[in-house]
Design brief:
CATH class of the largest domain: Alpha Beta
Largest sheet: 5 strands, parallel
Shape: elongated
Strand order of the largest sheet: 2-3-4-1-5
Structural class: alpha/beta
Length: 314
């Protein structure tokens, strides 16, 4: 049985490119409208379209915004599972979901919810192909250990981490390792995750690991070589996309939290928005941002279905 490879990073466009090129505005206008923008109507700067619609902040910015967290039953259930795993000292909990479904935001919310008097959190943001030594170095640094100046074998790093979690245990605290983008971990790193869960006293585990990864990661773990790690995953939760009702409430919530109390998205926008995005928050944010830019460029007081359809682009 061939082992699936770690999920490769998505190919990104030029990260230094502007949010939207000036010559792309016409393509965002419904029906390919060709009206030209006069200099004083050029609202392509993100701060301009936010001001035009009366926002205090960008409601659909592509950034982790715990202050704009919209609660759904699926995300509440996932958070509940994570809190239970930490409270009961479970070895591993796993949250998976499609790209853009809110896993990283959940990891941040989980971190915010820890009782620091009882928990010592360590956040590992995995980069593609991260090996076991890099993983252990990051974990050691997160736990407050001084990093050695010389190259250090993984076994020595693991020993130092073990001593640190024992010291935390003596203080009545527990190490909780939050691993975001775990689908990028190599095979040896995943085996090291399993090894971390072996750190224990005679009565209990010393480390809880919370894994956040894309849906394909759960399938990867079915390979026989990961059977031992699989057996340690006590709780697992698959994040589902939002349904049509949640999409509407999400958009209205974001608009309100960004400082605008008057309705902005017309009732006929939510069906095409749901169809275009599949209920994935990142796609909703991108589609709504494009619609807002196009709407501001046209001085449209309300975002309607035509603007949403015009903004429906990958």
């Amino acid at each position: 049985m061939n082992e699936p490879s770690p999920i490769p990073p998505a190919a990104d466009d030029d990260l230094d490119a502007p949010l939207i090129a000036p010559d792309a505005v016409e393509r965002l206008l419904p029906g390919g409208a060709s009206e030209s923008l006069t200099p004083d109507a050029d609202l392509l700067d993100p701060s301009d379209y936010a001001a035009f619609y009366g926002f205090d902040t960008h409601p659909f910015a592509d950034a982790l915004r715990p202050d704009l967290y919209f609660r759904t039953e699926a995300q509440d259930a996932a958070l509940g599972a994570l809190r239970l795993a930490v409270r009961d000292g479970m070895s591993v909990a796993l949250v998976t979901g499609p790209s853009g479904s809110g896993k990283s935001l959940l990891s941040q919310l989980a971190l915010r919810g820890f009782d620091r008097a009882r928990v010592e959190p360590a956040l590992i943001l995995v980069s593609p192909g991260m090996g076991k030594t890099a993983l252990l170095k990051l974990l050691a640094a997160e736990l407050g250990l001084p990093l050695p100046e010389r190259p250090t074998p993984a076994q020595d790093l693991l020993h130092a981490i073990h001593q640190r979690v024992l010291a935390l245990y003596s203080e009545g605290r527990r190490a909780v390792v939050v691993v975001d983008e775990c689908h990028f971990l190599t095979a040896d790193s995943l085996h090291m995750i399993r090894t971390l869960t072996n750190l224990e006293t005679e009565s209990e585990k010393l480390v809880t690991v919370l894994l956040f990864g894309e849906s394909a990661f759960a399938r990867r773990l079915r390979h026989p070589r990961y059977a031992s790690l699989q057996s340690r995953i006590v709780l697992r939760h698959a994040l589902a996309p939002m349904d049509r009702r949640d999409v509407e409430q999400y958009v209205k919530f974001r608009v309100m939290m960004a400082g605008r109390l008057d309705p902005l998205f017309a009732p006929d926008t939510f069906d095409p928005l749901y169809e275009a995005t599949g209920g994935i928050p990142r796609r909703i944010n991108a589609c709504c941002t494009r619609a807002l830019i196009a709407g501001a460029a046209r001085r449209a007081p309300i975002i309607d279905a035509a603007l949403i359809r015009g903004a429906d682009a990958p």
